[in-house]
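Re-running the complex after MR caught last week's input typo. The corrected sequence lines follow. Everything else is unchanged.
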Amino acid sequence: MTSKGIAVIISLLVAAIITAYLLVSPSLEFKERILALGFTFSSCFLLVYFSYEALIFKEINIIYDGLDKTKRKDFRRMSNKFLWRPEPLKRIKEEIYHMAAQKQKEIDELKRLQALRREFLADVSHELKTPIFAAQGFIHTLLDGAMDDVKVRDKFLQKAAKSLDGLDELVQDLITISQLEKGVVQMKKSTFDLRVLAHEIFEQLENKAALKGITLHLEEDEQDTYLVQADRGRIKQVLINLLDNAIKYGREQGNIWLSFYSGKKKTLVTVKDDGRGVPKEHQTRIFERFYRIDKSRTKDTGGGGSGLGLAISKHIVEAHRSTIAIESEVGKGTILRFKLPTAKA
Ligand code: ADP
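Corrected-run output:
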């Protein structure tokens, strides 16, 4: 029951008693009796209603004063004007619901971040473990006597070195991604020709592609140059990541096409392969840190990536105000696209 309801009932009761008393008194006329009823009812109503509200509010104020300063700022919707306005209980209930909902949101977000952090830590330790254990194994085997055989010694030392190179690559990638995520990396933009960059990268990757019998193609039209305004070093890193993946997950004797299309404002960059493809359910997830479709794939530490390649590429492309789009069909191949700002010649 609301304070208004209680006030109405009490006022009616008091007014009824007084009117009943007046009814038996012969000195008053009918009109005066009705007037007395109305007057008694209204004054009673106001009196009961406001004293009740004031009483409740006094209690609430005591609770409210008890809240320390930090908590109090959550009650910003509650002002001092609050005091003499009706239904303080209803409003304080709304305040508390509002605050609870806000706190719940904060808790959910913190929980999500903590889960991500835990997952990241687990992933990092797992990734670090692989090359460290490998190198450790080779070195201990050498110390245990394998060193005496020159052939075995060289082979094991080379393998240990390869593992440590992989470890170095992983740590470099971790540093890069943490800087990109912190947002402290500034893109050093300059005007450069994508075609020249493509030739540079092809030279670098040709041997690796040839080992799988893969041919790299640069799809060129009549245009001589593809000038863009971007961070050359970082875009080189993105293209190497995408082409390297196309080789790693491409089919033997397959093909990889790199192509550019210059628009007035944006230049479209496309990397296409005819490899194993990416199933639909993995297409957005492969851009997450350490996400791999084939979880069991044991990374051969020298040639394999760190599992961070696409996450790093995504960050770099986003820092150029674009996104990487994927289009892929299992068994047919994968296309990855992004855009860069076209530069004036
Ligand atoms: P890594 O290659 O080191 O595992 P990436 O972040 O570069 O890490 O790629 C994440 C995952 O996405 C890969 O493990 C692979 O499963 C999948 N992937 C990436 N590129 C391709 C591609 N061109 N074709 C098929 N799968 C791919």
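None of the earlier attempt is carried over here. Helices lie at 3-24, 30-66, 69-72, 88-143, 150-182, 194-211, 232-248, 309-319. Residues 299-303 have pLDDT under 50 and may be disordered.
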